[in-house]
Amino acid sequence: MGIRERKEREKERRRQQIIVAAKRVFSEKGFNKATMEDIAKEAELSPGTLYLYFKNKEELYASLSLRILQYLHIRVAHVNKEQGLNALEKLDALMDAMYDVYDFDPLIIINMFHLQSSETLKNLSDELLYEIKDLSRKSIGAISTIFKDGIETGHFQDRHPTALADIFWSLFSGVVLWEASKKIIDKEKDYLKDTLKTAFDLFRNGVVAHP
Amino acid sequence: MGIRERKEREKERRRQQIIVAAKRVFSEKGFNKATMEDIAKEAELSPGTLYLYFKNKEELYASLSLRILQYLHIRVAHVNKEQGLNALEKLDALMDAMYDVYDFDPLIIINMFHLQSSETLKNLSDELLYEIKDLSRKSIGAISTIFKDGIETGHFQDRHPTALADIFWSLFSGVVLWEASKKIIDKEKDYLKDTLKTAFDLFRNGVVAHP
Amino acid sequence: MGIRERKEREKERRRQQIIVAAKRVFSEKGFNKATMEDIAKEAELSPGTLYLYFKNKEELYASLSLRILQYLHIRVAHVNKEQGLNALEKLDALMDAMYDVYDFDPLIIINMFHLQSSETLKNLSDELLYEIKDLSRKSIGAISTIFKDGIETGHFQDRHPTALADIFWSLFSGVVLWEASKKIIDKEKDYLKDTLKTAFDLFRNGVVAHP
Amino acid sequence: MGIRERKEREKERRRQQIIVAAKRVFSEKGFNKATMEDIAKEAELSPGTLYLYFKNKEELYASLSLRILQYLHIRVAHVNKEQGLNALEKLDALMDAMYDVYDFDPLIIINMFHLQSSETLKNLSDELLYEIKDLSRKSIGAISTIFKDGIETGHFQDRHPTALADIFWSLFSGVVLWEASKKIIDKEKDYLKDTLKTAFDLFRNGVVAHP
DNA sequence: GATGAATGAGTATTCATTCAT
DNA sequence: TATGAATGAATACTCATTCAT
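Above: the input entities. Below: the structure tokens describing the complete assembly.
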């Protein structure tokens, strides 16, 4: 391993260290109330150092989402490539993947959806926005492919595959966000998994072709 | 009309004047980038006057959501009371109501999610928070009733009515949010109505009882 | 009683009504934390009305002191005019007068001393400052006269009468203020009367001529 | 000198730099009219920097008083420890110390009274408030000891030592305050030292035991 | 005179970001 | 690279004062 490579690896380690700290702080305080100093302290670094790895606060925040999107994309792509599953089985596998995505980091996924619905998105650098856009598109594309195949094989109703993918994705994020805010407002217990199951079930019912 | 009554009306007019200005400014700049001075200028008032009608920036912001919640509640309650409609027809009427809610104020779902983030909720007065909770609960309750009736009459599958109501609402807001972020990310055209139609269609398929 | 006179009397009544309210509010909250609206509410008047009777907040505050100074002056002048008392007896009567001044309104007298030591004094109108100056001078003058007489009759040591008057006055205000701040800092019991008695006693000891 | 130590010293230098600037600005404009920006400019620093060294405006203000209290305490304790002085000589030394306290910072008594007004005290941190209380108590305690000793040796009349200490301090601060307000009101010349001398003289006369 | 709604200047404080070391 | 002290722009909110009614 060359010096260059070792340095590269070291650098990546630091980025992760910061991202992990940022995740904790953002989750606890939200974007606005979290300060760069909070994050620096959590990461046991100085504020200045953060700026060696991230252009600004917004990009650091967005990087968290990027991580989830990457994970999501890997999972979805994997489902897609799975041999020996028909479309219906792939849909089920996709649903399982979404549970895992949620389990991977429930708080950060809520952050991600908030990010997507927010003013922050407008202030990102073109590169980062491009990465997010690219990963979103790829993930939605992979989901669409599942539907496209299912429509072709007659498992699913004949609808626009991308629209289905969008709706699938919307349903997931809608449920996650709505349950999250119910928890804030009502301090209700956490029924997300149940609701998600029902939601996906309905979706499945709605989309499969009835013989 | 007595003096007291005229004053009351005048006061309400001012509130609306401010709310309208706030909506414009918040929509354009987002919560954080919008300043109270911006809003005051838009409303052609002085900053101090805003505080005569709203306790602080957060309550002004929350008032926007309150308006849509009130509208939503009225529409949903109305569907519910409609005589001579069976559960399936009520579901269709409910979907129409949601389109209208969206038309009434397309940005509002995004506002509502910002509002529902804990950061913002913590700073609201108890009264306002109560009103929001109350209206949310009532609206979801009214939607649940439609499902409950439908389940009893055998039009809908036997599922938990509140879960259905949550999913219905999640689907709606999820689609709105996702389309909004697609617009930011991709600058795509606005297909929301189509997507929403498909989404509701799927939901209907998914939830109705198959004979 | 003519109309003019009745109006004049009515006006004076309002001034007193405001002063009484202001006293309560200033005493409770201090100059800075007390708002004109607080005072208006306490006086059951509107904020605007206050400005018909007092030029601004500072002058209203200073008017409270003026009232005490007027009372003080009357008492001191009265002691001075008392026939049939020698200088020592007059000094004792003066000390009694000071107790009464303090009893007349302990909180306002503390305010008065704060006023005198403060930035507010610099911002008063010339007329009001003149009135305060005039009353102070007259009071101190009257006290000086007592000492002057006492020195001439050999009751008191031969010192500068005005200096004695200043010291007498300083001792009184110093003790009042110091006890007041001890109460804030230590939440001690109220020993002011005892301390004042000892202080005056020492003063008496210090100033009388020993045969 | 280690790096740590050098930094500590540097930090203390900055604190002093700010305190000096604050004293100038507060003296000229009074607490309310002085702005943090004024002070920052006077210190040739940015407003933000002030907050690295002082929690808020009130604590910065209180720090000025703390300085004089520390000086006062040192001087009084020193008098107290002096060997070979009898009580009367110690009282004289104490009076000299008070002159020096006044010379150290003539405006400080006025500052201290503003500080002691409850408005200000309420906003101080517990630590600072404790320091102030502690130093006040210690100083008064040290003065009391002088009187206590003098009473035991028969130099002073048999009175409550703490009351004597309170009166001694009240007399001092009362005279300083009164002379200060006379300067504002009458723009008179500065006779303070003379008045103070007479005042202390009277006090001495009043308190010593006559054979 | 009395009102009280509206004003808008005034400011303490925060915190993302920089840069000399 | 890493630091962290210093920056200074940015802003919500207050409240003495005014003035149309």
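Note for the figure: The mean pLDDT of chain B is 88.
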